[in-house]
Structure formats: C-alpha cells, structure tokens
Amino acid sequence: MHQADSAILTARLALTLLNPSIEPASKSGMYHVLAPAYIMKGEADEARKMIDTIQRIPGWNQSPDRLISYYNILYGYHRLLGQHDQAYEAIDKANYLRDSMVHLAGSLGSQKEVIRYEIGQKALADSLRLSSSLLQAELKAKTNQTWLLIA
C-alpha cells in the first residue's frame, strides 16, 4: 500500500469513527493529512475538496503552524495543476510566515521556538508520515477505549 493510501485510509477511518467527539482543530489536522495525500496520488479534485473543507472549519487560520501547513498544501496543489505562479505565491506566503515567526521568536530570546519553527518545516512527506502515525496511534487508543467500554 502506498504511503498516501495509508494516510487517506487512516484519516478517513478516524473521521468516520470518531467524528462526534473530535474537536474542530483535530478535524482540521486530519484534512491537513488528507489534502497532501491526495496531492501525492495526483488526485486534484479530492485535494481541492479537502482544501475547501479546511477553510470551512472554525478557527482554521488561527494557528501559524496550520497556516504554514495550509500554504504548503496550496503549493503542492498548484504544482500538481501546473499553476506555477500560484504555487510560488503560496510557498512565498508559507516562507514569509515561517520567517516572521522565527524572527519573532528570536527577538523574544526564545531559541527553543526558533529551532521548533526551523525544524517544523521539513518536507511534505515527513509531515505526512508523522501525521499518519499519530492518527493511527490515536485511532488505536480510541478503538481500545471503545472496546473496554463495551466489555
């Protein structure tokens, strides 16, 4: 199974099984997994649906990390469509936001934050792999809790 397929399956399963109890921020995180996975598979229509869904979630643009992730997703989406000007515009926004956060953290004297933002912006495949693993672990924990409640 391709890594993107695994991420899609995991996130879809989590959304299906846990939907009533999931906080909006967590839902947003799952769509931040789904959109790049569809981009990696070359499925632009499905990726666009995930991008649109992200924008409908309350507070989707309140976290700098989520905004950077969103712009990285837009970069991949526009590259997939061959829209290079829009892709570069999106990645410029992500880089500007990241650099602003690094500068802010640096000016506040927090080297921990500087390192966090520099390391936190690795390749899309790394974040997808990590998100997929975390979702699988969370889903397994929730499923085990459900079985304990049933028993």
Short summary of the structure?
The chain has 151 residues and is mainly α.
Topology:
Blueprint: H1 3-18, H2 24-41, H3 44-56, H4 64-80, H5 84-107, H6 111-119, H7 124-150
Commentary on this structure:
The chain contains seven helices and no strands. It has 151 residues and is an all-alpha fold. The chain has a single domain (3-150), classed as Serine Threonine Protein Phosphatase 5, Tetratricopeptide repeat (Alpha Horseshoe). Helix 1 (3-18) runs antiparallel to helix 2. It is globular, with a radius of gyration of 17 Å.
CATH architecture: Alpha Horseshoe
Q: Distance between the terminal alpha carbons, to the nearest Å?
A: 33 Å
CATH class: Mainly Alpha
What is the number of independent domains?
1
What is the β-strand count? 0
Q: What is the CA-atom radius of gyration, in angstroms? A: 17 Å
Look at the helices and sheets and give the structural class: mainly alpha
Query: Into which percentage range does the β-strand content fall?
Result: under 5%
Give start-end ranges of low-pLDDT stretches. Answer: none
Helical region count? 7
The CATH topology is what?
A: Serine Threonine Protein Phosphatase 5, Tetratricopeptide repeat
SSE series: HHHHHHH
The amount of helix comes to over 70%
Categorize the overall geometry. globular
The largest pleated sheet is described as: none
What is the residue-mean pLDDT, rounded to a whole number?
74
